[in-house]
Amino acid sequence: MRKIVLLLMVGLLFNCKNSAQNAEQKNTQEKIKTAKPIEVPLENGLAKAYFASGCFWCVEAVYESVKGVKESISGYAGGHTKNPTYAASNTGRTGHAEAVEIIYDPEIVSFETLVDVYFASQNPLQVNGQGPDRGSQYRSILFYQNDAQKKIIESKKALLAKKLNATIAAEVYPFQKFWIGEDYHQDYEKLHPNNGYIRNVSIPRLRRFQAKMPQVLKEKH
Length: 221
Fold this sequence. Notes:
Elements: H1 2-33, E1 47-53, H2 56-64, E2 69-77, H3 86-89, E3 97-104, H4 111-120, E4 129-130, E5 133-134, E6 140-144, H5 147-164, E7 171-174, E8 178-180, H6 188-191, H7 196-212
Helix pairs in contact: 2-7, 4-5
């Protein structure tokens, strides 16, 4: 009987600890959502934008196919821990989502167009994931750096919701910090075209987007 009581007490303490940790993490995430956005200055005439939309291998490839985008970098954003790793973010406990940093020429492609690309390259109704990738680390987030970007995002999200008569899953966060992902994640689709996930998930997703917005694509050489 004592063993049963002891096990119940241990289980209760464990559940209480987990509940407290979950509540703390939720409060931290809410603070992140209402924080003042950090604006990234132009560098050599190039701007940066940040998006999360499922697997970063897929999103990186989508944006690198767009005119005016110089580079797309895979990493993590939107969480409450420092120095997130792929393994840690995949637990869903860091709050981070797989994200991309888009380095682009605003004279060629606007932030508004990048947001159009974002919604055209995903299933906007899927919560906590894209395609077979499920979990909070794969959730959709658009990050804004100033009020103008926030208005663009919220306007396009509202128009899409009206068009589809449905709730759009993407969250809207003030940009705070982007953590660059591990080296082996960079240019993954380009470097591993025969990988099973790339062939069956990433490339089809890229082609679906390209069919929707051919006018924004780079010319093939």
